[in-house]
Amino acid sequence: MSAPRLTTPRLTMPALGLGTWPMKGRDCEAAVGSALGLGYRHIDTAEMYGNEEAVGAGIAASGVAREDIFLTTKIWHDKPEGAAFRAAFAASLERLKQPYVDLLLVHWPSPALNLPSVLTALAEIHAAGLARAVGVSNFPSALLRQALALDIAPIACLQVEQHVMLGQQTLLDITQPAGIVMTSYTPLGKGEVLEHPVLRGIAARHGATPAQVALAWLLAKPLVAAVPKAQSAARQAENLAAARLALSAEDLAALAALPKNRRFVNPDFAPAWDLPLA
Ligand SMILES: NC(=O)c1ccc[n+]([C@@H]2O[C@H](COP(=O)([O-])OP(=O)(O)OC[C@H]3O[C@@H](n4cnc5c(N)ncnc54)[C@H](OP(=O)(O)O)[C@@H]3O)[C@@H](O)[C@H]2O)c1
Q1: How far apart are the CA of 151 and the centre of ligand 1, in A?
Q2: Per-residue pLDDT tens over the stretch 138-176
Q3: CATH number of the domain within which 56 lies
Q4: Are 31 and 55 in contact (CB under 8 A)?
């Protein structure tokens, strides 16, 4: 089976992809291969993950046509200027052994970020066809608004942490009207939100699993994609099947009522986040 697609004027992508951090080497290559074999057509990697070679090898060995795969990579925050960003992206393409990626993201903002310079690099890379779409990750609302107001690069996607305990409504209020896809990372809350009795109850009623409920809640939102990481084929298949789970209005309301203030990814270099809406 394959995941439903999200289509905007700036991109078309499968709503469910495979996250690849922190897999490396043979494990990563095998996970990418098994996911593609199961029907995944969206793979999420990054320069910082140290697995772009393995991801590229997994794609090459899969036999799936490259144009059928949506491949995302990201450039780390230690390249806050356009020249360093462009050079790092060229190295990413080499490691991936790819002539282009489908989506290129600024991985994190840093205090040193020269926003116009990096957005100009994104725009040039996009215009050259080396990234079919471009965007940003871990941008809080003020910085995202600034990037959109500069109107230098055609921002098509924002990747942020999002799950049943972190709703990101402040950012959705920007991305959805602007036709920007929000890709949820850590969509299973690293597996830690799956024990919650509300998720377990909904899963039991549908004959589904808590992971499928967590993913279906995200995919029910307009213009939201998710990239759960799973090493095993069994969990990959379980997660992909979440796209078929239709939650009721009552289920969605129960999930919406859960606290939305739990953040699992908060490194010391993170920006000042938006406060969760009550
Ligand atoms: N842009 C960014 O800054 C950023 C930051 C973090 C992550 N990401 C991306 O988002 C991806 C996913 O995020 P994440 O890895 O932090 O967290 P996640 O996807 O929420 O959780 C991954 C954990 O959940 C487990 N799991 C997977 N499927 C499951 C299932 N069906 N039932 C129970 N447990 C399951 C995995 O186990 P296994 O060990 O069995 O695989 C792993 O321990 C990353 O791989 C990366 O591609 C991006």
Answers
A1: 32
A2: 999 999 999 999 999 999 999 999 999 999 999 999 999
A3: 3.20.20.100
A4: no
